Amino acid sequence: MSRLIEAQGFTNRVLGWDAWLDVVALADASPEQITVLEESHPKAKESDYYLFLVHQPEILRQRSAAFNAIMYAPGGLPRAERELASTVVSRVNGCVYCASVHAQRFEQLAKRDDVIEQVFNDPATAGTSPREKAIVLASIDLTLMPGQVEPAQLRALREVGLSDDEILDLIHSIAIFAWANRLMLNLGEPVG
Amino acid sequence: MTDTYDLSTDIVDRIAGLTPGSAAYLTRHKRDKVAAATQRSSDALFDPALPDLSLSDRLLVALYACTLSNAPALATHYAERLASINADRAVIDQIAQGSIDAQEPRLRAMLIFTRTLIQSPIDGDKTALEQLPAAGIPTPAVVALAQLIAFLSYQIRLTAGLRALQVLNATEAA
Predict the structure, then answer these.
(1) Are B31 and A172 within 8 A, CB to CB?
(2) What is the CATH T-level fold of the domain B9-173, as seen in this structure?
(3) CA–CA distances in Å: residue B71 to residues B39, B62, B75, B97, B155
(4) What is the CATH number of the domain that holds A119?
(5) Count of alpha carbons within 13 angstroms of residue A115, beta-carbon side
(6) What is the span of the domain harbouring residue A83?
(7) Which residue of B46, B147, B149, B169 to mutate against A (max A Cβ within 10 Å)?
(8) Most CB atoms closer than 10 Å: which of A61, A123, A169, B144?
(9) What is the C-alpha radius of gyration for chain B, rounded to an integer number of angstroms?
């Protein structure tokens, strides 16, 4: 049983999410829309988020392909560290819903929650090791200042042991949450 | 939809300066599923056949998002695409300068939504979203617009990160 963490308006509780405009009713969905929902997420047919995005099935199909390849592909950056980056980006962007989901995933994969509490309280100082601190800092910088990314910032990741393959996975994990957070924050709101 | 992913027309590679065979290029293309889904997302979002949201309006949204994000290479890319479809040069120039007040109401509503999502996504609320249907944009087109702006936020960070990786590798090889 995981420990409840609530700080600065963020939580690792399970939340729901409601769309602000009309979603596609499952009964009215086309065969293509059903297929894309099934490809996107195991619970997509019960989710306002996916039922709203499936108004544009081909766009959702490609978004889900990118998201799933970034977050779940084997090898490269350990999955817990991808979830940490996602949680940091969501914390910085103020996406309470995404932060709760990906904090839970980090805890499931890493079997600990210490860094999540730090990220919720103050992302700028979060990280339980030099490697974690570097991952957190890169996540903040690429999220807030994409126009000022310097090679030195990536060199700092190499210096704490990340390979270029891992750096690529980190860039992907940060960038895909620039995408995800904006949808979650601007098309509906967390409930529960 | 396109079933093939043509490496030679990959926008992210071109904007990030990843030349085929370079270290950063080889690193990126070990994750080819991501590269392919990124390019196909772009193809879907800029599909000329998408209804209720003209290609020119979508490219103007992209130009504005990249201008606000200090992403000049991507901004130039979208400005060139606008020029290639003969979009109004005065409108392109105004938006490339970050000026949106003179645009017609429907486009202006889209650009205001773009500004919020790009610069301060936390400030978006139900009232802000409802401005789009109120400006005559049906729900499926609202979804396409939101996906477009959110995708651009991703594309801007992906290209910035990859460009830095390319420069880092090129510096070390020299």
Answers:
(1) yes
(2) AhpD-like (1.20.1290)
(3) 18, 11, 6, 13, 10
(4) 1.20.1290.10
(5) 29
(6) 76-181
(7) B147
(8) A169
(9) 17
Query: In which residue are the tokens 């401005």 written?
Result: B131
How many independent structural domains does chain A possess? 2
User: pLDDT digit string (tens) for A25-82?
Assistant: 999 999 999 999 999 999 999 999 999 999 999 999 999 999 999 999 999 999 999 9
Q: Do A182 and B165 touch (CB under 8 A)?
A: no
CB contact under 8 A, A175 and B154: yes
Q: What is the pTM of this model?
A: 0.97
ipTM greater than 0.90: yes
Nearest to B154 among A21, A58, A178 (CB): A178
Task: Render pLDDT for A136-172 as a digit per residue (tens, 0 to 9).
Answer: 999 999 999 999 999 999 999 999 999 999 999 999 9
Inter-helix orientation angle B89-96/B72-84, to 10°: 170
Whether A68 and A89 map to the same domain: the answer is no
Instruction: Tell me whether residue A162 is in a domain.
Output: yes
- A93 close to B (CB below 8 A): yes
